[in-house]
């Protein structure tokens, strides 16, 4: 089995100019801060598109990434906790697209699950429907929301085994699971890294086949 | 008692034992402090918890257990965690009994504007659009008028909408108003000391008066 354990610096080298990068987490919960910090501080890839539920808070590395001028497009559902994303939207320095949170999750799921899109009633009658196809199913209108995919996904988990099987604790699952399915290259930062077989199959939250690289950032030995 | 406490005390009376409830960040979340002792609800946080408990103490703080406002919380016995796809399947799929949210404007068709002021404030809709479309019952908790004293309850919303035809009940410091589909806004309860005229004057749409009109008791 290939060793998936690498450094954060090596992991983020996979990000190329013009790439789309998914960043897991909900505010600070499950945010892969070590990976994003490495992307900001050790790598110069430019003209990036970022897909993130909320683009974090001012205390997180994603704030510095958004502020770096290297991010040209942002897809998110809530940006009230990152004033820099709001500034980019207002000044049009970056193209910021906002989606209902459940729609954003389903667009990513569609990208990872081989679907051509999803039909949702959410956004009907609002500016969210602008430019989108509306489809009538049994007398109710739905919006066709197209899939989102990424070149690289940066996610966070509590524990990984050598195969990349992940355990994610508590409310940190959020977007980390679905983003693992929807990118060509998926890096998980984890507190712990254990031998194959040490995670009970009943407890695996994310199958290891989705995971290309593990960056161990904690000191936990289990 | 301040206005916010008055509003959330009244809203807490709407919860029935066993309800799955999602409360918006801010004033709606305060309603949990006033739920009657014999009523047990399952509180959902859309970032992935069903069975949210009281706020965490300093010693209990854990970044893997936060609510949708990013605050550290605890969980109730019987709680569970899930990812965002499942969380919004619960929400969109009609498995949430009540959601309580704030609003900028509500109109007589139950249309809701709560997420942006063009050119001024665009924080994003977060989970609000999914919640109001998917929840079985949408209750709005808000001040009756805005900071300039202008009505927030209107014939037609002016701000960009969060969703159409979704609001069932509006609770303010002045009144409880129900949206009756096809008919309009029904004044059901009124704050002690106020007249129907007082409420009508502060409202930008014509109110129907419930035959069972009563005083808000909290």
TrEMBL record, chain A:
InterPro entries: 3-oxoacid_CoA-transf_A (IPR012792), CoA_trans_fam_I (IPR004165), CoA_transf_BS (IPR004163), NagB/RpiA_transferase-like (IPR037171). SMART domains: CoA_trans. Pfam families: CoA_trans. GO terms for molecular function: CoA-transferase activity. Keywords: Transferase. The keyword Acetylation does not apply. Belongs to the 3-oxoacid CoA-transferase subunit A family. This is Acetyl-CoA--acetoacetyl-CoA transferase subunit alpha. The lineage of its organism: Bacteria, Bacillati, Bacillota, Bacilli, Bacillales.
Automatic annotation (TrEMBL), chain B:
It holds the Pfam family CoA_trans. The keyword Ligase does not apply. Keywords: Transferase. InterPro entries: 3-oxoacid_CoA-transf_B, CoA_trans_fam_I, NagB/RpiA_transferase-like. SMART domains: CoA_trans (SM00882). One of its GO terms (molecular function) is CoA-transferase activity. NCBIfam families: pcaJ_scoB_fam. Belongs to the 3-oxoacid CoA-transferase subunit B family. This is Succinyl-CoA--3-ketoacid-CoA transferase.
């Amino acid at each position: 089995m290939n060793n998936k354990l690498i450094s954060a610096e090596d992991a983020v080298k996979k990000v190329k100019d013009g790439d789309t990068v998914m960043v897991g987490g909900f505010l600070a919960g499950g945010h892969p801060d070590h990976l994003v910090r490495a992307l900001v501080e050790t790598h110069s890839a430019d003209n990036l598109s970022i897909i993130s539920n909320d683009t974090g808070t001012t205390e997180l590395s994603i704030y510095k990434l958004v502020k770096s001028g290297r991010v040209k497009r942002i897809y998110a559902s809530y940006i009230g906790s990152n004033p820099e994303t709001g500034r980019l939207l207002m000044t049009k320095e970056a193209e910021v697209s906002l989606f209902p949170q459940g729609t954003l999750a389903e667009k990513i799921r569609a990208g990872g699950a081989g679907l051509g899109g999803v039909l949702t009633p959410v956004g009907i009658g609002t500016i969210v429907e602008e430019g989108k196809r509306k489809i009538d199913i049994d007398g109710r209108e739905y919006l066709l929301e197209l899939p989102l995919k990424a070149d690289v996904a940066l996610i966070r988990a509590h524990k990984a085994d050598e195969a990349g099987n992940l355990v994610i604790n508590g409310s940190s699952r959020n977007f980390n699971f679905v983003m693992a399915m929807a990118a060509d290259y998926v890096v998980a930062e984890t507190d712990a890294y254990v031998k194959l077989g040490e995670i009970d199959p009943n407890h695996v939250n994310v199958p290891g086949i989705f995971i290309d690289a593990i960056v161990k950032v904690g000191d936990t030995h289990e | 008692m301040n206005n916010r406490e008055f509003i959330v005390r009244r809203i807490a009376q709407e919860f029935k034992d066993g309800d799955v409830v999602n409360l918006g960040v801010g004033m709606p979340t305060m309603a949990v402090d006033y739920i009657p002792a014999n009523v047990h609800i399952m509180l959902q946080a859309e970032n992935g918890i069903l069975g949210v408990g009281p706020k965490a103490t300093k010693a209990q703080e854990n970044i893997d257990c936060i609510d949708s406002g990013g605050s550290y919380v605890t969980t109730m016995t019987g709680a569970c965690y899930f990812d965002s796809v499942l969380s919004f399947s619960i929400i969109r799929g009609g498995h949430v009994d009540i959601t309580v949210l704030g609003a900028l404007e509500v109109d007589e068709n139950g249309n809701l504007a709560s997420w942006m002021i063009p050119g001024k404030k665009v924080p994003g809709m977060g989970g609000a659009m999914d919640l109001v479309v998917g929840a079985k019952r949408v209750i709005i908790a808000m001040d009756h008028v805005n900071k300039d004293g202008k009505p927030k309850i209107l014939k037609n919303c002016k701000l960009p909408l969060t969703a159409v035809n979704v609001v069932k009940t509006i609770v303010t410091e002045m009144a409880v108003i129900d949206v009756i589909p096809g008919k309009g806004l029904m004044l059901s309860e009124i704050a002690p000391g106020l007249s129907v005229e007082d409420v009508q004057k502060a409202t930008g749409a014509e109110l129907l008066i419930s035959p069972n009109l009563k005083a808000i008791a909290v």
